[in-house]
Amino acid sequence: MGKDLPKKKKKRPEKCISVEEAKGLEKNWCDTRTPEIDKCLGFNDTREFHWSVAELQEYLKYVKKQSRKQGIDNPGIRIYFGAYPKEKCKMNKGYATVFLAPTGAPAGEQGKGGAHAPNNYSIAPYNWGNSGEPSIIY
User: Fold this and answer.
1) Does 12 map to a domain?
2) What integer pLDDT is reported at residue 89 of this predicted model?
3) Range of 28's domain?
4) Cα(8)–Cα(134) distance, rounded to whole angstroms?
5) Number of folded domains in the chain?
6) Longest pairwise C-alpha distance within the chain
7) pLDDT for 92-132, tens place per residue?
């Protein structure tokens, strides 16, 4: 009968940052942007957004499959800030949002990868995350 093999320890992705660095980034955002944004809008806007891992995996699987059909070997995701029209928001306010936009160019197109990859308008963007009220501090 088979022996139980030791589980491989998964490496942390190289672009992970520490909790302390993440807290510092959020604090810097709050110190340098939140007061002006909230003053201008006249209300405390949201600044954090949530999706479950399952939702994100489902979307990423969709992007990979659709990209493959288009000959895009290494698709990416660009995250954009957005704001809802106030008439579509709770309390008649135009809260902030973010949406995920697929990127990628067919294999062989030079200079069109990574941060410079074009948006792929053939694949639907992703939105409708949730946020805390008030925003949840990291």
Assistant:
1) no
2) 66
3) 19-116
4) 40
5) 1
6) 69
7) 788 888 999 999 987 766 556 677 889 999 999 999 877 76
Please report whether residue 13 resides in a domain: no
Q: Which residue did the predictor score with more confidence, 50 or 88?
A: 50
CA nearest neighbour of 83 among 46, 55, 33: 46
Identity of residue 66: Q
Whether 36 maps to a domain, the answer reads yes
97 within 8 A of 83, measured Cβ to Cβ: yes
In a domain, 124, yes or no: no
Task: Count H helices and E strands in the chain, helices first.
Answer: 3, 2
Instruction: Tell which residue, 58, 53, 128, 75, has the closest CA to residue 97.
Output: 128
Question: Could you tell me the two tokens for 36?
Answer: 């002006």
Q: Please report the beta strands in the chain, taking only residues with DSSP state E, as ranges in sequence order.
A: 76-83, 96-103
User: Does the bond joining 134 to the residue before it have cis omega, within 30 degrees of 0?
Assistant: yes
**Helical H segments across the chain, by residue range:** 19-32, 34-41, 53-69
The residue behind tokens 């062989």 is 108
